[in-house]
Amino acid sequence: MRKAIPGIFILLIFLTTSSGCDKFEYSPYQTETLKGIPKDLNNINILKLLANENTDDDTVTILYTGDSQRFYDELKNLVTKVNTMPEIDLMVLSGDLTDFGTLQEYLWIERELKKLNIPFLCTIGNHDLTANGEAIFVNMFGQKNYSFIYKGYKFIFHDTNGRKYGFDGNIPDITWLSKEIDDTTPDWFIGVSHIPPYDIDFDENLELSYKNLFASKKNFILSLHGHLHSTSDSYYYNDSVRYMTSNAVVKNQAILLKLINGRIIKQFIEY
Amino acid sequence: MRSLLVSFLLFSNTYYAQETPKRDSIKLVTSAQFAGSTGLYSAGVSKVSRTEKIELGFLCGYVPSSFGGPLASLVLKFAYNPFNFKIINKIRIEPFQTGVFFAQNFGDNLDVIWGKQYPKGYYWWHRSLRTHFFISTQVSYKIGSKSLDRIAAYFEVNTNDLYLYSFFPNRKSIKIYDIFFFGTGLKLYFKLPLRLKH
To answer: In chain B, which among 137-176 make CB contacts under 8 A with chain A?
Structure first.
């Protein structure tokens, strides 16, 4: 028996080393793996969404949730539920995909999200920006600020995590947002970002110009956020823009938004 | 769990200290490691207890940009080797070693403390100091020269506090295999005399 031990030991090393090189971790904070991580997911999902754009039906159905940080089991249940609902066009995650901004968490979240039958689009949250999370997000999902038009609705995903940058006056990027909103192509505008403008983690020096910019467009109908881990829905600034926040994934309740000709129908989905 | 391990270590130390009071040499081990969550490559030195059941020392590791860095780490590592078997003449196997290491990570976004824009307790976890738990297995070959006692090869699996926090509430979607990561390395065990022999 004793003579067999070195053999078993060598076999064990061989098996474990050959079974997947990405199990050799260099650091919990590494931004890349030897095998490579998924890249440019937001663009890939936008292309997938636009490829299936059916112009006969102008209704847009969105599954809206956020803050999936460390709630993998609940996310798994949500994905299963969403896959039974063929009417949904896309899933929107309002940031904080991860809790600690580590590569492993991004990979664990992506492992669940890729099981979705529909495209998913993510905005960056403050937790995603901790450690090397920003570099990993950009690598895996793409630019923090991006936009696209689907069935006449322009979705503007952007970074509003002002505290992370020490409230330096640059986040949210008002200049970029102005350019995005200065567009006559879409019928309607929808903003998607993590921190709502009235929250203490939003750069308060930019709150006024941000909400005024949105309200300056009469067809800017909706601003979706996360961060608060609970739902809220109001015309917060008593202007034409409706502000919503989503539940955290752990709450087992997501929001279904049906957009019909600029009208918003909201419904809760349990999973 | 941590306190249990510490008391275990302390107990073993006292026990063996009483058994072998004579001290004429100091045992040290140097290690060179690939992966293992402390760097692409890490190197370290540890003090080895006389019975060779405990190793306590430091490692330094580095991850270059091409491998997902630049990152560096400074690690304090305790290892406990409860068993060893002599297989044939010069080959010894330590099938199960365990321990803990504390890794202070350094990088562009990894200051020791959270930035001043965050009120106290805004993020509850330590920004860049990670606590890791590991299990390893090791085989060594006796050299028996004046100072180089033996050389060893080891294989280690480790996890850290953040992965454990992620694992426990998610038993359906995160498997135990998901949170353990591998490292492997070589060690040189030295026995250095403390006084000259006549």
So the answer is: 137, 139, 155, 160, 162-163, 165-166, 169-174
Which helix (DSSP H) or strand (DSSP E) does residue B191 occupy? strand B181-193
Measured CA angle at B42 (ends B37, B47), to 5 deg: 105
Of the listed ranges B10-24, B48-62, B102-116, the least confidently predicted one is B10-24
Taking residue B68's Cβ as centre, other Cβ atoms within 10 Å add up to 24
Task: Classify each residue of B105-141 as buried b or exposed e, where b means 16 or more C-beta atoms within 10 Å of its C-beta.
Answer: bbbebbeeebeeebeeeeeeeebbbbebbbebbbbbe
Measured between CA atoms, how close is B143 to chain A, in angstroms?
Answer: 18
- pLDDT tens-digit map of A18-60: 555 689 999 999 999 988 999 999 999 999 999 989 878 899 9
Residue (of B26, B33, B89) closest to B58 by Cα position: B33
Is B38 an 8 Å CB contact of chain A? yes
CA distance B150 to B37: 26
d(CA A52, CA A54): 6
ipTM score for this prediction: 0.90
A170 CB within 8 Å of a chain B CB: no
For the entire predicted model, the pTM comes to: 0.90
